[in-house]
Design goal:
Elements lengths: L3 H15 L4 H18 L9 E5 L4 H21 L4 E7 L6 H13 L8 E7 L2 E4 L8 H18 L3 H5 L1 H16 L6 E4 L3 H17 L11 H20 L4 H5 L12 E4 L12 H7 L18 H16 L4 H18 L4 H9 L4 H19 L3 H9 L3 H4 L2 H8 L7 H8 L6 H11 L3 H9 L11 H7 L4 E7 L6 E7 L2
Parallel strand pairs: 1-2, 1-5, 2-3, 5-6
Antiparallel strand pairs: 3-4, 7-8
Helix pairs in contact: 1-3, 2-3, 5-16, 7-9, 8-9, 12-13, 12-16, 19-20
């Protein structure tokens, strides 16, 4: 039971919040509240009803958290009772400290940190803990993320989305399963995605699952069924990535939850505006959200990995194609601006992102920032990143001579020994140790790559190629043909 003082606090905070909303959005808060009262079975049962919000820590999900908090406070003030609000944030190595600081400021502004009506969870793969701004990332999670970046990157020559997002997207599905079914589960999941977006995403998952031979039920598909289909996709994906090493796919299996508990999805998409400039005062001034140098990377405001995507493009153009790092960055900026405009980001944020690279000196500064981030987040130095964009170990080491000639000419005479090490021949321990040192991968994983092929995205005969084919985060950029030196277009992906 709330005290009078609590009620006053609730009213003050609620009025502050709705003061930033339009009349249409205030009506939306009321409509969602009415829908939840009905779903709970009446106002007397509200206190036993649990609503989950997945909070990535970015600008869009920040707005959703604020909206749901407004609904929660409105019901408390109207009925003297309200639902429990579970806010879960997923982390990976690309989530820098500034993201957690944003989350902490948002929680504080919304009065969630010490509110018994809120469960604030941080989910680090299989580890679920109460949110704390300085919660350290588990070393095991960082190791998994690092290995996935390297293995995906070597199979895709460092292309942005496969390298950083494929494994992460499967981890997001796992996160939803773990967050939604933790300690008895939740009744509803509040989302900013439209019903159309949800339907399109589900249809894409089903097509992908069917395309790789997974038997899926199409009619009456529940949230758990969708996660089960994604588990099948993930199993096939990681088998393709890690070969016969059964331990690695098992580490990354998507959690599917309890069939007897099926949360419903409640979309607020039609009730709000997602353009951040429509809510700048709410997000920036009231909630204290800051567009940090690393956390805000191109289309993302909760992940620094797009900074590395641009960096890898620069390294690829410099080392593999023999042009300049700046040329590669220019190509990635062309792509990134296209994506930012497609997402209707405000001009001030687009300008902020692009201005960081608008001179040779700034490009050099950003290169240093990206290099330091790769080292700090993933333990990867420039040697390992350059090896990734060459993909010299796949296809039985077809590009190994080029890689050695361009980057490590002192090993030119040792190429036969390097092949011997990758074939696990005796007497090649010295070469194996150097390969592990320069790539950041164990010799076991390097041998897996040696037996694998560089993914041909045009052929569509691998799970990785099928995933990118259905991914909207790709675009053609103006570049130079490596063979002829003539202008051409290249399809790249990223964020």
């Amino acid at each position: 039971m709330n005290t009078a003082h609590d009620a006053n606090d609730d009213r003050t905070r609620y009025e502050q919040l709705i003061g930033f909303l339009t009349e249409e959005e205030r009506l939306g808060v009321a409509a969602v509240g009415d829908k939840l009262v009905e779903a709970a079975g009446g106002r007397r049962k509200l206190a036993d009803y649990k609503v989950m919000v997945a909070y990535g820590g970015g600008k869009d999900s920040t707005y959703v958290v604020a909206f749901v908090r407004a609904v929660q406070l409105r019901l408390q003030l109207a009925h003297g009772s309200t639902f429990l609000m579970r806010v879960a944030n997923m982390r990976h190595a690309g989530v820098v400290g500034a993201v957690m600081e944003n989350i902490d400021r948002v929680y504080a502004a919304l009065g969630l940190l010490d509110d018994e009506r809120a469960e604030l969870l941080t989910i680090d793969h299989t580890e679920i803990r109460r949110f704390r701004v300085d919660l350290p990332l588990p070393e095991k999670l960082v190791a998994i993320n690092r290995l996935d970046v390297l293995m995906n990157g070597h199979r895709s020559a460092g292309d942005g989305r496969p390298t950083f997002c494929n494994s992460c997207n499967l981890a997001v599905a796992d996160f939803y399963g773990r967050a939604a079914w933790w300690r008895g589960g939740v009744d509803a999941i509040m989302t900013g995605d439209s019903r159309r977006e949800q339907a399109l995403y589900a249809a894409w998952i089903l097509r992908l699952a069917k395309g790789i031979g997974i038997d899926v039920q199409r009619k009456g598909m529940t949230f758990r069924d969708l996660l089960a289909a994604l588990r099948g996709v993930g199993d096939a994906y990681f088998r393709e990535l890690f070969g016969d090493d059964r331990h690695e796919p098992a580490e990354r299996e998507v959690a599917v939850g309890d069939r007897s508990v099926q949360p419903t999805f409640v979309s607020i998409y039609d009730l709000v505006s997602y353009r951040v400039h429509d809510h700048w005062d709410l997000i920036v001034d009231f909630l204290g959200f800051r567009f940090d140098d690393l956390a805000f990377s191109f289309t993302e405001s909760d992940c620094a990995n797009p900074t590395l995507m641009a960096h890898l493009r620069g390294l690829r153009v410099e080392y593999v194609e023999g042009r300049t790092y700046a040329a590669g960055i220019t190509e990635y900026l062309e792509f990134a601006e296209t994506m930012m405009r497609k997402k209707e980001m405000p001009d001030r944020l687009i300008d902020l992102a692009l201005a960081r690279y608008d001179s040779p000196e700034k490009i050099a500064e950003r290169r240093a920032v990206a290099s330091a981030y790769a080292e700090n987040a993933f333990g990867l130095n420039e040697d390992a990143l350059v090896a990734m964009v060459f993909s010299p170990f796949t296809d039985k080491g077809a590009r190994l001579p080029q890689f050695i000639e361009r980057c490590h000419p002192e090993w030119r005479d040792e190429i036969p020994a390097l092949h011997a090490a990758l074939l696990a021949e005796e007497g090649s321990d010295h070469a194996a140790a150097w390969l592990a040192e320069v790539s950041g991968l164990s010799i076991t994983h390097l041998r897996t790559l040696y037996r694998s092929s560089l993914v041909d995205f045009a052929a569509g005969d691998t799970v990785m190629a099928r995933v990118r084919a259905g991914d909207p985060h790709k675009s053609q950029v103006h570049t130079v043909d490596a063979q002829s030196g003539l202008p051409t277009l290249e399809l790249i992906s990223g964020r």
